[in-house]
Amino acid sequence: MVGANMLLNLDKNWDGTNVQDLIVDLVNALSAVRSLSEISCEMADEKAVIRLALSCLLSNQDIEKCSFFILDDSGLLSNVTGVSVGERAESDPVFSQPTMSFRMGEGIIGAAAATGEMQYCSNCREDDQFTLNADVNNMPGSIVCTPVFTLHKELIGVLNVSHSEPEFFSIWHKRLLQVFSNILGQLITNRRLFQQMEIQIATRTAELERLVEETRRLKDYYVSMSMQDQLTGLHNRRYFYDQVELAFAQHNRYEYPFCLLMMDIDHFKHINDEYGHAFGDEVLITVAGALQKLVRNTDILVRFGGEEFVIIFVNTGCDNGKTFAERIRDNIKNLRWQVGGKQVQITISIGLYCMVPESKLAHQYADIDQIIHCADTALYKAKANGRDRVEVFEATQLADEF
Ligand SMILES: Nc1nc2c(ncn2[C@@H]2O[C@H](COP(=O)(O)OP(=O)(O)OP(=O)(O)O)[C@@H](O)[C@H]2O)c(=O)[nH]1
């Protein structure tokens, strides 16, 4: 479309200029527009984008200098970058010239911004607004200032192109600059939108990451809560079933023995009835703390329910298991509480099941519920035999039990 319009105008403004020159001009104009369309709007620095755009214009046109004045929030137009013929855009990305600023309506740049129309000064040396202020020797011959807008018609700034010769710019240049400014406006708009999008994506990504982390933390919290006994702080039955698989796996693979202790506080109902439920809770908490001190980190200790605790001594044979069980029984018996001027002590009964390598015993079970049942049977025996004692599940009990 751009090319077609230009050709149309070319016909309309035909003044006898050499056709070959016009075709060269047309190709140059299209090249300027085309190279502008190749600038990536993903560049972080807006000034660098504008500088590249100015270089595209300069390298495809016979313009000598161009610069860009950006409108800031205070309504001031300040030149952020500029390129002269022969300069490479990437050679000096930082605009080294002293910053010039214009208010809306001030000078030819301010006029372009205020009117929203292209401004052309064909001979600066005879124009008061230039001769009064500027250094005449460095003054351009002619200047074109074109306002540049966003897609929503908001002013971005003013494109300023100049040449040392007066009367240099033709209708052809002006039409090209109009098209070029429109595309430059689109490019800057796209870059700004892209940057906004990047910031939004970064903000949302950070928010999402925070939510994922929070969810993970909550999940960990609830998993640990679901595996923990709220009264004593020990792990609970659910954790036990989770962890016992490991003891089984090690037993099956390496023939590591392990011992399962089922422990129950004796006559605990009496403690509750005599001293109250709160005191009963205190006893449970103290017993849990004492048990925790008596087991190794690798052992599995849980409150199995009520006044029942279970320990798995991993990689522990039957003799050691019995010794540890007796030590636990003894330690718990030595605990003391003071309540209502009375000293209270408790005892526990323990049922022990030893899981030894299969070759040694014929009655081994590979099912945790069966093993618990065996330890429970031994516990029942300890209770039946007078409490405050450790009983080991014997193979001879199998016949009775199964
Ligand atoms: N304070 C308190 N008591 C509990 C808790 N869980 C269970 N109990 C009590 O523990 C008592 C267990 O009583 P029983 O099952 O009759 O057993 P026991 O009195 O210990 O008798 P033996 O086991 O035969 O020696 C019941 O009174 C339960 O209410 C708890 O979390 N806190």
| CATH level 3 topology of the largest domain | Beta-Lactamase
Classify the helix fraction into a percent range. Answer: 40-55%
Please give the domain count: 2
Tell me the span between the first and last alpha carbons.
94 Å
What multimeric state do the chains show?
single chain
Structural category is alpha+beta
Domain GGDEF: 256-395
Enzyme class: transferase
Catalytic activity: 2 GTP = 3',3'-c-di-GMP + 2 diphosphate
Protein name: diguanylate cyclase
Write up what this structure looks like.
The protein is 49% helix and 19% strand. The chain is α+β, with helices and mostly antiparallel strands. It is rod-shaped. Helix 1 packs antiparallel against helix 6 (171-226), helix 8 (268-275) crosses helix 9 and helix 9 packs across helix 10 (318-333). Strand 5 (142-149) and strand 6 form a beta hairpin. The longest helix is centred in the middle third of the chain and has 56 residues, at 171-226. It has 12 helices and 13 strands. Strands 3-2-1-6-5-4 form a 6-stranded antiparallel β-sheet, sandwiched between helices. The model is unreliable at 1-14 (pLDDT under 50). The chain folds into 2 domains: 2-197, GAF domain (Beta-Lactamase, 2-Layer Sandwich); 237-401, 2-Layer Sandwich (Alpha-Beta Plaits). The protein has helices at residues 2-12, 19-37, 46-60, 107-115, 128-131, 171-226, 237-254, 268-275, 277-294, 318-333, 368-384, 397-401, and strands at 65-71, 76-84, 101-103, 119-121, 142-149, 155-163, 258-265, 300-305, 308-313, 337-339, 342-344, 348-355, 390-392. The structure holds guanosine-5'-triphosphate. Guanosine-5'-triphosphate binds next to strand 7, helix 8 and helix 9.
